[in-house]
Each structure stands twice: as C-alpha cells, then as structure tokens.
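Progress report, Aim 2. The chain analyzed during this reporting quarter is listed below.
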Amino acid sequence: MSQPVLSHLEEVGHWLTQRPVLGVSAEQLSSVAVLAVDIINGFTREGALASPRVENIIAPSVSLIQGALDAGLPAAHVGLMADAHPENAEEFRAYPPHCAQGTHEAEWAPELLALPAAGKFSYFYKNSIASHHTPELERWLEQTAPRTLIVIGDVTDLCLYSLGLHLLTRSQHSGLGQRIVLPANCAQTWDAPDHPAELYHPLFLYQLARTGAEVVSGVNWLGAQA
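Predicted structure tokens for the chain:
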C-alpha cells in the first residue's frame, strides 16, 4: 500500500529542515563553479511573475557568491543565467509576458551587478524555462569543468528544477562524476492560490535530491579570509 500523500509531504518538509551545510575548502575552489538562474528584476521586484518570496533570496545569493570570491573562487567560475524573451515568445502562451529583451525586468538584480567582480562573471540568456538550450552555457561548463556545481536561483519548480535536472543528467550521461549542489536558502518559488509555494518548493528540491543532487541548507566557504 502506498504512503498517504499528506504523510509523505510532512516527511518532505521535515527533510528540508534537516539539510546539512556544505563546507568547501580552499583546495576545492579551483574545481567549483556557481551558477545562478533568473535572479532578475522580473522574478523578484516587478512584472507579472515577480514575487516577494523570490526577492528574499537576493541577499543570501549575493552573500554566497561574495563568500566564494573572498575564499578565492575565480570570478570566471560564476555564471548568471536570465530570461530574455522576444515580444512574440512562445512561452507567453503558457505564462504572462515577462522579462522581455532590453527591458528592466530582464536585468539582473542590482545587488548582483554591484559585486566588485561582476564584470568578470559569465552571463547567459534563455528563451524558455530550460537553460540548457543556450549554447554558451555548454561552452562555459566545458571550459570551467567543475567537479562541484553550486546551483542557485528561481523558480524551484520550473527554471531551477530544469537546470538542476539537466546538469544531473548531463553528468550521469557522460560519466563526469560532478556534484550538483542546491543550497535551499538561495532557492525559492512564488506563492499563489493555484500554486502553494510551501508544496512546490520542498517537493521539487526533494525530487532533485532523489535524482542525485545534494540539497544543502547553505554553503560555508572554509577558505574565506577573516
């Protein structure tokens, strides 16, 4: 007999509260990369798909990236992926128009751009929920060749899930042995009557973990200077 749904959801919620902190040593930094998806104005502060829940991950995401840089992570190992849709994007059949190319919605959160090393980050653009259709991302993954990929952003059950699943299956298919790590404090989704965030956020992180990702509560950069 299968487990009752509500009982399972309670277990998933408890599981998320018990996630460990990932410790990254100075010796590991050369084989680490950080990839953020859709930490942009159109999902955080303005537009049809913006959400205060998603806005709340800006500060911890900036802190995670700055901590990595302080510890010695090369700035080129930080990648930022964002929606940038044409006016006639097919995705608008499923979702309200958002993050159109050249608009303020499609720009990264200013806190990310204010980081001193932002000019050395790698920037990517997508026209669907799936980041892996962007050829520049694949080239970046090949060039940086990380053993550990730390993936942050939004939304948990769409763009972040699609990216995490792609990175997992890419590594599994090619036998790369990569660790795909998702810090829960730097991930979030929106809340609405037909989209309860307290259901979708933990459930999709849990599914990524079942597929092989490591879901952690946060990251501790052990090589960071005091």
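The domain at 5-221 is CATH 3.40.50.850 (Rossmann fold). The chain has a mean pLDDT of 96. These observations will guide the mutagenesis work planned for the next reporting period.
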